[in-house]
Write a structure and sequence with these properties.
Helix content is about 50%, strand content about 10%. The chain contains 22 helices and 13 strands. It has a 7-stranded mixed sheet. A two-stranded antiparallel ribbon has the order 1-2. Strand 10 and strand 11 form a beta hairpin. It binds adenosine-5'-triphosphate (ATP) and magnesium ion. Magnesium ion binds next to loops.
């Protein structure tokens, strides 16, 4: 797992794949020169064999955490995961950090998610504790040699996602692997081997022992990937969706819609999954359950609440359409409408409007609360109502100046 890119005082440094790779080679070399066995391990080996750029590099080694820290220096290492044998080694600019982990064997898993403790052991046992064969490969970057204890190379070649060992036992140890199975199958485009798939379906309901934050992390990865439709289809047919998102009912139309989204952020993708199935209150419950930030939660709910608000946008009064068009989530809302209703005139209409200059799209208001206060309007709910009426009249070009706005306020107060 990657914590973050290397940072400077000014924030994140862009990761450069070639720098990351070179740094991961240097680490193996340094460990070797110090007399330790060391390989690249897991996802980075899989991705490189598939011709993909790895997100990050993991190194597995015979060195124990103290030895790793001694070798790379305490200032260039983080020992957050040391109890599990994991040390993060910080790289030079653009190289990020590499997780260096001691070969280990996991003890029993009594909570269905984490091993009770780990014992340092051999590469073979380290491969066996990993989740899927294609994630259980080692690679020696110096000899350019793959080390395969689990049959991962064949599965990689044949496009098969297969649990290492007995699937039921492996999923019972760590139930997050149920969701990982779906994620890897979808994102790699691999079919899930029969016994592995059977175990996922059989045990799907048990996914709820995994923390909601961790479930949300997996959902984020799945829904923002280009394989999101396949991931959602698999979540539906394995029964995992019933367990983690009972609000959702899968069907061809929804898959088509989410497939049409182009590089969506998580809130947009989630809104697309839920749109038409839930109201904003139920959407908020899903977001709260997954502990999403207020910002993301508000975006999901706003999208669901405003999907229909664009109906008839082409002939809507400007004062009704303008607040939607200038809202922060408008691009997401248009993307959602276009995905759900391709060729819909409302989205095209709004996109044309969005080309107007900002001072036309969202002119400064003619009156503010301070103005109302100055003319002695008592504080209260009336304030907002008056300001809204004045703003609507301004946008609809019924009034053009502060004086006209104040006159309208007088009129409205007299009427009320
Ligand atoms: P990604 O591209 O998502 O990073 P990855 O395979 O690198 O995929 P990580 O979560 O970064 O996945 O984990 C690195 C490696 O650690 C995996 O390839 C796998 O070998 C092992 N691993 C990670 N999580 C688990 C787990 N829950 N159970 C068993 N092995 C795991
Ligand atoms: Mg990884």
């Amino acid at each position: 797992m990657c914590f973050c890119g290397a940072t400077t005082g000014r924030g994140f440094v862009m990761l450069i794949p070639e720098n990351q790779r070179e740094f991961a080679v240097d680490i193996v070399e340094k460990l070797r020169n110090a007399g330790f066995e060391a390989y690249w391990a897991g996802g980075c080996v899989r991705d490189r064999l598939l011709g993909r750029v790895p997100k990050d590099y993991d190194v597995a080694t015979g060195a124990v955490p103290d030895e790793i820290r001694q070798l790379f220096g305490r200032r260039r290492t983080l020992a957050i995961g040391a109890a599990f044998g994991v040390i993060h080694v910080l790289g030079p600019k653009g190289a990020g950090q590499v997780e260096v982990a001691t070969f280990r064997r996991d003890a029993a898993y009594s909570d269905g998610r984490h091993p009770d403790n780990v014992t340092f052991s051999s590469p073979e046992e380290d491969a066996a504790r990993r989740d899927f064969t294609v994630n259980g490969l080692f690679y020696d970057p110096i000899a350019d040699e793959v080390i395969d204890f689990v049959g991962g190379r064949d599965d990689l070649q044949n496009g098969i996602l297969r649990a290492i060992g007995r699937p039921c036992e492996r999923f019972a140890e760590d139930k997050l692997r149920l969701l990982r199975a779906v994620r890897f199958s979808a994102t790699l485009g691999f079919s899930i081997e029969a016994e592995t798939l059977e175990a996922v379906c059989k045990m799907a309901a048990e996914i709820t022992v995994v923390s909601p934050e961790r479930i949300a992390m997996e959902m984020r990865e799945m829904l923002t990937s280009s394989a999101r439709a396949e991931a959602v289809r698999l979540l539906g047919c394995t029964g995992l969706a019933d367990a983690i998102l009972p609000e959702f009912t899968t069907g061809e139309p929804i898959l088509t819609v989410i497939n049409r989204l182009e590089v969506p952020g998580f809130p947009l993708a989630l809104a697309a999954v839920l749109c038409g199935l839930v109201d904003t209150a139920a959407a908020r419950q899903v977001c709260n359950r997954w502990r999403l930030s207020n910002k993301e939660t508000d975006r999901v709910c706003w999208l669901i609440g405003h999907f229909d608000a664009l109906d008839g946008a082409c002939s809507m009064r400007w004062s009704a359409l303008q607040p939607i068009v200038v809202a922060e989530g408008i691009e997401d809302l248009l993307a959602l409408r276009e995905a759900a209703l391709p060729g819909c005139p409302e989205a095209a209409h709004c996109r044309a409007i969005l080309k107007r200059p900002p001072e036309v799209l969202d002119p400064p208001p003619l009156l503010t609360g301070d103005d109302l206060h100055e003319i002695g309007v008592p504080q209260g709910p009336q304030y907002r109502l008056l300001l809204n009426r004045v703003r609507a009249a301004q946008l609809d070009e019924e009034i053009h100046s502060r004086d006209e706005a104040l006159k309208l306020v007088d009129l409205l107060i007299m009427e009320s």
